[in-house]
Amino acid sequence: MVRFLKRIQVFAAFLAIIVLVTSGNSKTWPHARCFHSSICSHHCQPSENAISGQCVFFFKKCKCKF
Asked: Where is the signal peptide (predicted)?
């Protein structure tokens, strides 16, 4: 059981590193929660310089369908 938990921790850390690297390299981050308009308006804050259909989510621009 302990070995299983260690493997899960290693996998979670590896996945977190991949997400951080890929999100840091892209100017727009098409997050899954930003594709629905009501979810987008709940999780994202509108940005003044964002293109129509975009919002800011965790300081990244998300393309959202309004």
From this structure: 1-26
